Amino acid sequence: MILKLKQTYSLNAWIIIRAFLLYLIVSCLCSSICYAQASLSITGTIKDKKGEVIPGAAVYLSGYQIATVANNDGRFTLGNLKPGNYDLLVQVIGFTPQNKNVILLDKTVNVDIILSENITELTEVVIKADPNRQRYINMFKANFIGNTPNAKQCKILNPEVIQADYNPAKKLLTVTATDFLIIENKALGYRIKYLLNFFENDEKANVVFYSGHPHFEEMERKESRRKKYAKPRAVAYAGSSQHFFTSLYHNRIKEEGFIINKITKIPNKARLSDDIINANISRLSRTYYGDSRLNGMFTDSLRYWRNMRTEPATLSVLNRSEVLVDTLVKQLFKNVKSVAYNDALYVIYTNERETTDYTNMSGHSVNRPLDIPNYQ
């Protein structure tokens, strides 16, 4: 699932950036979505690119607390599953972690998963020390995990797998990982294995984008010790992206406190075309540098056109008309629905207000119309 928003912590008014087709992972969102039906299984074999089986690989279901280990023949089985859309995560030493999407309808599905050797583990790599590495990792943590009270109780246990690259000219931070990120969330009692596909923080556009697949494990083995997390988990779920998509599937957006609007792009009439702007800059630059006596005369004009070039070609406009669920959600299969839209969606959660602590500590700036209260 690819969303340009924080998946772990709900924003007070968050935006789902454009996606042409986003599969709603029904079973992964809420186990109550699928009702009494025959239990199904996902079976398969883990192999390398030469076709040799790989024993001992760990196989996880993304978004669940379900996992297994491949046997000596590389075979695995994940049973007692409901129809739905699943993401398998596979991990074994010496190979790059892999994910595989599987749709269960009315029968067991068998899949082969091919792993690639992890070159960084199999060869000696000399890495030049980067004095800014810790700063980049801190930037990543602030945007990936956040700065909320809950986030302060989260810790990445294996930061050595993080590969960060920063482009100062573009003010663009990109992050990948050579293995699962292991995140300990003491606020909610979870240990999370997160297969990070991609992370990008564009400071100029003020946009954070990342995609990946989580697997959850309980930190406490005893059920009696997990009870203390029930309330914090319920609070974290309310208004989250998972809550939103579950409500979307059940067509209970209004009942659950969500409002959906659209953000559309319109031409910026104050900005002329690039051809006109560049022609004027070129003309004024030749005059400016060709005759020093005219420098003062042309400075303001040259600055005017250069400033116009930095203006956006389009402007984002919030359409306050509520978006109807049936215009977004389509039945894909019997137990799987899809969400399709062209414009960005502006989603407001009205059952909770933004606290002062959240505003001061989250680091997120959310623009909202003046007549909209500080809802989540």
Notable characteristics:
single chain, 376 residues, alpha+beta, Immunoglobulin-like, seven-stranded antiparallel beta sheet, four-stranded antiparallel beta sheet, 21 strands, disordered N terminus
Description:
With 376 residues, the protein is an alpha+beta fold. Among the domains are: 95 residues, Sandwich (Immunoglobulin-like), CATH 2.60.40.10; 43 residues. Helix content is 22%, strand content 35%. It has nine helices and 21 strands. Strands 1, 11, 12, 13, 14, 15 and 16 form a seven-stranded antiparallel sheet that branches. The protein has a four-stranded antiparallel sheet with strand order 2-21-17-18, with no helix packed on it. Helix 7 runs antiparallel to helix 8. The longest helix is centred in the C-terminal third of the chain and has 17 residues. The N terminus is likely disordered.
Produce the secondary structure layout.
Layout: E1 2-3, E2 13-16, E3 19-23, H1 26-29, E4 40-48, E5 58-61, E6 67-69, E7 75-81, E8 84-91, E9 98-104, E10 109-115, H2 119-122, H3 133-144, E11 154-156, E12 162-167, E13 172-177, E14 181-185, E15 190-202, E16 207-218, H4 223-226, H5 230-237, H6 241-250, E17 258-267, H7 274-290, H8 295-310, E18 314-319, E19 329-331, E20 337-341, E21 344-349, H9 356-361
Parallel strand pairs: 4-10
Antiparallel strand pairs: 1-16, 2-21, 3-20, 4-7, 5-6, 5-8, 8-9, 11-14, 12-13, 13-15, 14-15, 15-16, 17-18, 17-21, 19-20
Helix pairs in contact: 7-8
